[in-house]
User: What shape does this take?
Amino acid sequence: MIVGRHIARSTRRSVRAGFTLMEVLVVVAILVILASAASFAYFRYLEDAKVGRAKTDMRVIKSALEKFNMEHGVFPEQDRLGVLAPYLEQGEQGLIDPWGRPYSFTVQQEQDTSSVDGGVRQRVIVICQGAPGRAQFTVPDMQTGR
Assistant: This one.
């Protein structure tokens, strides 16, 4: 009788010792949902960081173009941006955007309304192609002027 009682107690305990398949699947599903939400936020953060870095690089390139123009009286040709390397802290690497493509620029002629003689002012606009499949952006921003 004592032996029978001991066997019955041990079988009851072993039946409930682990998790059911349904419990494990629910936990795995919750973990997958949390991981996917976190990864979307992480990749969006990385893309925003690349855009921020590109805008900072573009401001530096704009400044380098203006310094080059002041020293030489002309802007460099579009395919010879490498001449700006001495003006950039990163050298020629500073002319490549975070997506691996070169920056470009354009010079617009504007009427200078602040001068008495009504001269023409040159405005440098640096262009970044941005991420593949996305629209390009400029510095200064064409919509806000900044």
